[in-house]
Amino acid sequence: MNAPAKINFASPGRSPDDLDITVRNRKFGRGSKTRRWWLNGDPVGTAWFNALSATFPRGEAFFIESVKAHRDGAPPKLEAEIRAFVKQEINHTREHIVFNKLAENAGYDISFIDQRVEEMLALTKGRPQILNLAATMALEHFTAMLGQELLTHPAHLEGADGDLGDLWKWHSAEEVEHKGVAYDTWLHATRDWTRFKRWKVKSLMMLIVTKNFITHRVSDMVELLAQDGIPAGEARRRIAAYLLWKPGFLRRIAGQWAAYFLPGFHPWNHDDRPLIRKYESDFPDAVMPAA
Fold it and tell me: Which Gene Ontology terms cover its molecular function (predicted)?
């Protein structure tokens, strides 16, 4: 009988030495009126983005605290990147609070999403901080994957009311740009671990995060569509088509998701800074501080 193949848990890659994380202090949705179905009149697409946005204010505060908890002793470059990461996430929180208010003004009750996020985060209190960092790292991979998808295929946001499409492109560019910060913080915090232990913990956490992410986003969308008068069975069929077929968000990111489990994975093994440069060429004021 052949001996089982030995997996080589290779050292992970690294963030580019010349990576600059830019804080783009932009503001969106001020004084604008939007339709209830602000994304091209599509209730399902609107529900997808509304459900995502409702999780961001509390979720991004959790990301910030999880990363900051492990910054002691970080190399100067990583320390600077953590500071920029925190500033970007604070701005994201501010803008999604405004976005969420627009959804509420359109007649949606999204408080149930915020309440569940609050309850789930309460469960993280008292557990080892390294597990919170592992969860943050997995969720940051999700936001980076979704950001890359939106920047690669801007048709996802065609027909968005006002500057709401620009909000999501801005957020996407910065998620792609800082996609390695939580991961590099994890590598710093677990520098005394074996490569196998590091891989095992991060992989198990990604499986847990994936189950919760998909389950909760779908249930959130079903509830939001119920507020539009769409029955649960029909809503689930339309959600499945939206996420798996056209435009197929989850189908399109499946390869990137699977890559997370590879030995030697690092978010910057794929350098997608051209997407950020494309964003900045489309929005030249993106790098200018807000007045």
Answer: hydrolase activity
